[in-house]
Amino acid sequence: MLACSTFKLRATATSANPDISEPEPEPKVRKLKASSQLNKWYRARALRSGHKLERSSRRTGALEVNPSAQRTKESLSLKSTSMESDDDHDVEVTTPGKPIYMVSDGTGWTAEDSVNAALGQFDHCLVDRRCPVNTHLFSGIDDVERLLEIIKQAAKEGAMLLYTLADPSMAESAKQACKLWAPGRSFPLSDEYFQRIEAVEFTIKQDDGAMPQNLCKADIVLMGVSRTGKTPLSIYLSQKGYKVANVPIVKEVSLPKGLFEVDPEKVFGLTINPLVLQTIRKARAKSLGFNEETRSNYSEMDYVKQDLEFARRVFAQNPVWPVIEVTGKAIEETAAVILRLYHDRKHKCSMPRISKRY
Q1: Average pLDDT of the chain?
Q2: Percent of the chain with pLDDT over 70
Q3: Helices and strands in the chain: count of H runs, count of E runs
Q4: pLDDT of residue 135
Q5: Averaged pLDDT for residues 140-146
Q6: Is the four-CA dihedral 235, 240, 245, 246 of positive or negative sign?
Q7: Range name among 152-166, 169-183, 266-280, 342-356 with the lowest pLDDT average
Q8: Rounded to two decimals, what is the model's pTM?
Q9: CA distances from 267 to 173, 217, 235, 262, 291 (A)
Q10: Can you tell me the distance from the alpha carbon of 321 to that of 215, in angstroms, rounded to the nearest whole number?
């Protein structure tokens, strides 16, 4: 996980030298009221994340340290930690960030992958892994009592709670518990959410020219030669709720008839610099296992130029289709241009809000 709790086990020490006076008793630390079962889950989660549970006892030499200085040092460390009791030991739980609880009656991989994907949208979580959150995965929760115990603990910590429960009764219990202990914090699935899901499913089925009979149902149709980024761009747009179809332009292969029955204002062409396209195609050919002996003209410069020239003629025959240069553009940039043009045309803007150079 991107961020997880770390644990240290601290054993109670006794002095081996009776001549040295015992330090003054330390002030009591407020302890979280968590069950031993939750403590075990915390430790298991730390182990799965690669953290070591260190058991250490205070040595005799440690008593020579100035007691007041030792208490000051410990009090500073307690600002970002909390204590839990487990059998005969104190468990010190470091909680540097916002807790996120993931509860599942199965493996919990769906919830975990969703959280990872969401955290990955933030650069500091994706690059240096110092995202200020604590993630806790509770899998195999098939008992309502344990489920409510986890939700109650999450409410006490002010944690964000995600649950994936196949059992309808368990899901309803979780829903009611969230309303009871954390009112106003639930995020119900809206119509917009299901529209996005439908758009993604449509886009995947229409990838690379599949099912051309459904082109008329698409909100946006992308055209371009191989390796101009049609598929990732389509998926990105679909996650924003747009049904997208993409059609490859292949030399000496006729375009589907249904393409010319689509509203031309929905169609967008993609083009790219031939040198950049050749580099991308060479990398693609290498990933497919092509070597010098099985060289294909797919990545040869002459073939690349012929592909782009054929696409240019197709676009010239259909001047209503905007042609967007994708060289050096991120998917987000290309998508922004397409959506701006799409909405300008949809709302019949007399003065387009974007220049004619795409």
Answers
A1: 75
A2: 64
A3: 11, 11
A4: 87
A5: 90
A6: negative
A7: 342-356
A8: 0.52
A9: 48, 12, 16, 8, 37
A10: 15
- Taking the C-alpha atoms of residue 2 and residue 112, their distance in angstroms, rounded to an integer, is 10
CA separation for the pair 244, 266 (Å, rounded) = 10
Q: What per-residue confidence (pLDDT) applies to 184?
A: 60
98-104 and 160-164 strand pairing: parallel
**Burial class of 215 by CB neighbour count within 10 A (0 to 12, 13 to 18, 19+):** buried
DSSP secondary structure, 234-284, as one string:
HHHHHTTT--EEEEE--TT-PPPGGGGGS-GGGEEEEE--HHHHHHHHHHH
The single-letter DSSP state of residue 31 is B
CA triple 89-91-97, angle to 5 deg:
175
Question: Who contacts 39 (Cβ-Cβ below 8 Å, separation ≥6)?
Answer: 84, 86, 91
Task: State the pLDDT at residue 271.
Answer: 96
Please give the helix or strand (H or E) that residue 85 lies within, else none. Answer: strand 81-86
| Other residues' Cβ atoms within 10 Å of the Cβ of residue 62 | 11
- Tokens at 136, concatenated: 């806790």
At 304 the pLDDT is: 94
* Strand ordering across the sheet containing 160-164: 133-138, 98-104, 160-164
Q: Which residues of 154-179 are buried (b: 16+ CB within 10 A; e: fewer)?
A: bbebebbbbbbbeeeebeebbeebbe
pLDDT value at position 113?
Answer: 86
Tracing tokens 């915390």 back to the chain, one arrives at: 42
